Amino acid sequence: xxxxxxxxxxxxxxxxxxxxxxxxxxxxxxxxxxxxxxxxxxxxxxxxxxxxxxxxxxxxxxxxxxxxxxxxxxxxxxxxxxxxxxxxxxxxxxxxxxxxxxxxxxxxxxxxxxxxxxxxxxxxxxxxxxxxxxxxxxxxxxxxxxxxxxxxxxxxxxxxxxxxxxx
Length: 167
What we know:
Elements: E1 4-8, H1 14-25, E2 28-31, H2 32-40, H3 44-51, H4 53-67, E3 73-76, H5 85-93, E4 98-102, H6 105-112, H7 125-143, E5 146-149, H8 155-166
Parallel strand pairs: 1-3, 1-4, 2-3, 4-5
Helix pairs in contact: 1-8, 2-4, 3-4
């Protein structure tokens, strides 16, 4: 079972903070989006284009389930990974900290560059991001054992706050 799991919106710092935490804890870092890309041999964006969101969500759930079997790791979930009922039930059943990295649009926008190919942010990316977060935030909050507001903190500060919270 992972040492901790990071959840949150795109641009919250799950990947960068997760990698930092894994180094501090001397553990493996697993990013479910990277697991999926490695398994499929193509990018997440391309999976959406070629196969659609439902197919991707099945891959995402399988990556989550498989990653939960890895001992002593830091696990970062894609922003939509905890949204399905089956993923929520799975995450609620585990006994490790789930950390919600809470980020505002103002902080997330420059981090993720809304001009990038993000399948769920097509059209008006800022409006889409806000709409996604309005649906996802209550789920993130329900699943989280710890929430960290990351806007005014550097990655190291976020990692230190998480280390303090799980000690």
